[in-house]
DNA sequence: ATGAAAGCGCTAACAA
DNA sequence: TTGTTAGCGCTTTCAT
């Protein structure tokens, strides 16, 4: 049987109220009694039951984070930052992975709510008013990351569109004339939340537009390698392949290398994310870096602020930057 | 205010006991009343409070996992598998990262215990009888992974030593005569738990011994690149650099490439882990693969079994394999 | 089949 | 300064 506050009370010959005062150093207790109780707690190896405390306090000192998966290195880095920051503030972290399944995500959120987390960090795959209605029903502080939901929800992220536009502008300056853009399947467009991907695509298009370039092939399916296979890059004008994330870019690079193409002589490749393994890849991938740890930190800070002070830290303070990384792949 | 079981009771004109019977479909309730209550719960948007349930049930339906960090891809994969499996069994997962800090780890475990997790998956940096004493004090089911603690604790992992021995034997068969082994700093040897690293090193030594090879340089500090820099690999007999994990191997490979060495012609490199990014690296790194997801699955299965049935699934069933991956780097 | 009531371990308000 | 007591929301036992 676990040692409870009552056991200590009995052991010391005081009441449970007094024990509570000592343990949580609240005022109204004689120093001597306090020491006695504290010693007893140590002797008996007392350990507080957060479950019971939560019940009466109405707070659990836990946060929940909802992510797709940890396949992309960036997510793992984000999670690390969030865990660290959360515990710094005294919060424990539940992790829930949705595998991009909309129903699963809803269930995860529901479970987190039932477990009475004090706040949720949400990288959602769901979107739309119905979903937002659903979220509002929980009346739990929620902060969205990466995938924007609506102005109703606090958001931490980077200006994806501007970042991509900036990157592609650099490429255009290098004299590339033809562009292929590779993005995850958008077949769920309009249904699932693909905010970040859409923003990056728009950034790409904007960069082309502002340079009076119209030619661009946009590939939004998983068979992009098949598509690339049909192309003879040595017979085209200098072509740049822009990928919406580094993982795609690495796949493309690997594929084109097996096809005997020289990169960037025959064809250029750009990624997005600057995942940490890039340093082991040659040629160095040109990409866009953003402070993923900072996003995690900001999210936690703002969320905890909301929980404890009743208001989020405003967006003005959570603006984050990006950086073009000139590699050798384009 | 949240809707409670009492609200439903009042709403339906029944007692809270009846509501409970309906909600958790326990026997002793008329079908009609049950439907009425269920409907009311829906109407009022009732959501159970797991905190309260936990208090009376003595179980929280949560597990905790304690890891160093998520820097190594393998850990992220492991975590993904664990989360998935845990929720499959109806458990939620707390994550606690220790950053290899011994005190931090103890604190994490303590917090998890206070939050009343039903079980803990532990990849520990602590070790020794004092620590084990500490763990026993919690009387919570614990399963250790990767870093073995003692026979007192259920363990899931792979035969690290045999795996490394097997891999190195392959290398020896290729005719390599000189060997350099690179491992994380062992300055804490005897203090922190470096079981896996020690086992791998022993496997390496055993492989040499059984081939009557004595020559080996073992580097156990972080300045291994400085050490390698002093060596002219073209003037030595064929040298193999064995790294205790892929991350080191990738660092070494990158470094030697910048030094103008051809791999594997001038020097061979082998890693361990088979992290998923290897496919983007050339030359393909020779390494050892093990089923990290399976380790996560087994850990959860065994832990849940212990929680629910009172006994762990025995070690015989949790033996996992490894596989030598012949790349082009050695 | 249903209701009443005790209690999980803790906190907090009120008495003494 | 200390003790007493009433909950927090739920489950469970014992009456009815």
UniProtKB/TrEMBL annotation, chains A, B:
Tell me what this protein is called: LacI family transcriptional regulator
> PROSITE patterns from the entry?
HTH_LACI_2
Q: Which organism is it from?
A: Niallia taxi
Q: What UniProt keywords apply to this chain's record, in alphabetical order?
A: DNA-binding, Transcription, Transcription regulation
Q: Which SMART domains match?
A: HTH_LACI
Q: Which Pfam families match?
A: LacI, Peripla_BP_3
Q: Secretion signal: which residues?
A: none
One of the entry's Gene Ontology molecular-function terms is:
transcription cis-regulatory region binding
Traced from the root, the source organism's taxonomic lineage reads: Bacteria, Bacillati, Bacillota, Bacilli, Bacillales
User: InterPro entries attached here?
Assistant: HTH_LacI, LacI/GalR-like_sensor, Lambda_DNA-bd_dom_sf, Peripla_BP_I
According to the entry, every stretch annotated as the HTH lacI-type domain falls at: 3-57
